[in-house]
Fold:
Amino acid sequence: MKNLKSILNAVLAEAGFLEKPGFATSVDPDDKQMVAIANRMAYQILNHFNWSGLRETLEITMTSATRYPLPADFQSFAPDSFFTESGGFEFPVPEGRYFSCKYGSGDTGGVIRARKYGNALEIPNPSPGEILYLEYVTNVPIKSSANQPKTEFTSDDDVWQLDDELIILGIQQRWGQVKQFPQYAEWRAEFNNKLNEAIGRDTGSRTIGGSSAKGSGKSPYYPLYRSSS
Amino acid sequence: MQAQQGSIPVTIDAPVDGWNAFDSLDNMPKTAAVVLNNLIPEPGRVVSRLGQILYEDLGTGAPVETVASFSSATASKLVAASSGGIFVLGDSAIEASAQSTTEAAPVGTFNSDRWQTENFRKADETGIMAMCNGVDTTQIFDGVNVTDISTSGTDEALVFTPNFIGCLTFKGRMYYWLDDDNAFYYTQAGSYQGVFQKYDLGTFTRRGGKLTLITTWTQQDSGDGKDDFIVFVFDTGEVLIYQGDDPETTGYFEMVGRYLTSEPLSIRGTTQYGADTIIMTRDGYVALSTIIQEGRTSDVHQFSRLIHNAITERTQVTRPLYGWDVELFPRQGLMIFNVPISDDVFEQHVLNTVTQKWTRFKGISTACMCVHDERLFGGTRDGKIVAMLESTADFGRPILYDCLMAFDYHEAPGTQKHLVAAQIISTMSNPANIQITGYADFDVPDLIPITLPVEQIPSTWSVDPADPPSVVGSFWDEDFWSVEGVPYTTKGWQNVSAYGYAVSILVRFYSVNEQVIWRSTGLRLYMGGAQ
Structure:
């Protein structure tokens, strides 16, 4: 994992520009511009995908309270990550059903429902004593040299927590756009390709193909046109 | 240049047209510079000036207000004055300090250190140097000692005190003049003292005033040719030109012209330049030939035309200060005009005599200068003699070089353009140490602080370095190779941002161990794009 100075100097070096001794504390507007572009790209990458590298586990022991504060570094919930041992948990909940649960007097059928409410998780029908397990994505793709989480680069030593090449290519294409370099379009395409690749690597995948239904193996998705029985 | 998509590279020469303080900012040659400090425009390139070394500390702690070159048939010595004393310094090689220092007169002997000097060799003598400060009795320096000038034999009816302020050799005799006077005194032919005669110029002036300086001028050659004239410049700016060699005899010394220029800045503010004489005046540095043709009616043909505004800006404020001086330094092809900014701070307006382009030196604070044995010396305000333009650093400290290039519309004055990158093609060993900042539309805000780079200090290789390491030698695989004598070209684009119709870059760098040659400038910009 590279720090801000290494990332920005990698961008400059690849374009044949001179590397700089530092960026974050420089008063040179061109250095400030590089830092601003880096933060813009960090924000865009962070918000583009729920990166597994930024996931954290959260355990909420339910009480009679209906609202549970979320962590300070909360960015978003990992989809389909809510789990309770009783099994009945719904998130997200369609508006009508949620309000029916929250304000209605009907039977919830043992299903605990929740929604995000500001910086808290609202559970109108908690199951006191039961633990809610969930994963969320943090908003700190950067850490200081002392390993403290950060939401943006403010020091040359700040370390990027995700794919280095992704942010290098992202800054490169953004910087090339600002500078109107003729290779901007190619840089943009490279960044997009890298973004897709990074997402693919992050999610994992399943093999499409393999043995037939009558063979020894049982590929879950093959053959697609036949029954899996 | 048509508007187009994408940024494009543009190449500009180094600022070989030099410092320009005459043309308007929007109509300046693109290879000129609005600011050019410590960078010398040379043919096809710009070179960083060399630095100073300490030649000798006189130990007076007082200003050294005179350095002069004594040259006789048998000796050549540098003479300096400080704290009422006169010191004689032994010669040494370039970049070396003085071998010896002796006192021709101890500290406290004289009341002023502002001596004007002139070498003179009388028949059957090895040569002397006359020294005048306008306060003390004129001194005759013979290479070792100073003695009072002799006036024996002078007609007793001629009552005067020989505390001359200036002296000049002209056609075999010495001419002296007093402060606050409008006459000159001259010796007999072939002599520098003894019988004196007085020649009053007051009746020939129309503006009155006092005689500030005397110099010579020739119309045809660069020496004392057959048409050599003696020129009397008054503090009013009035210039009287005489021809002849015997002021005593009617018909052998007569006025051939009276002209008017602006007030001379200093008794030391004149020098010979080829076939002409340059005088530092309040309106600029003017050639005598120009005074004769233009008088004070035009600045356009002035010798210092290209930096006219910069000179007048200084002279309006600091004209009364001491230190206005000029020296021609042939070894480096420079004419150096010393300009006081305050009592302790000076700058130099410098002409490259080859390209006739100007620059400014900063960081050299000397109140006096002289060329001696092909070296340029100066005196500091704290009792030191410095040898200038010899080392790659100022007393071992880095020198700051800066240049704000001319603002350029890039052939599209009606189109906004975005300057996005720049590079300096030079011999700077680490081009990243060159700081480049973009500016647009003549707006020069506060400068960004420049950081002092950590430079590689070149080593001196030793076959058998001492162990433990000494300052004498260097070790294999441990010390940097010397960059001396390796003027390879380096380059490197840097981020630069400026948005406007006319764009420019400010180039600044420190250097301590190399002389940098600036060969070319690269810009990258695009037209009409949004910022």
About this structure: DSSP finds two helices and 38 strands in chain B. The two ends of chain B are 19 Å apart (CA to CA). Chain B touches chain A through 24 residues (CB under 8 Å).
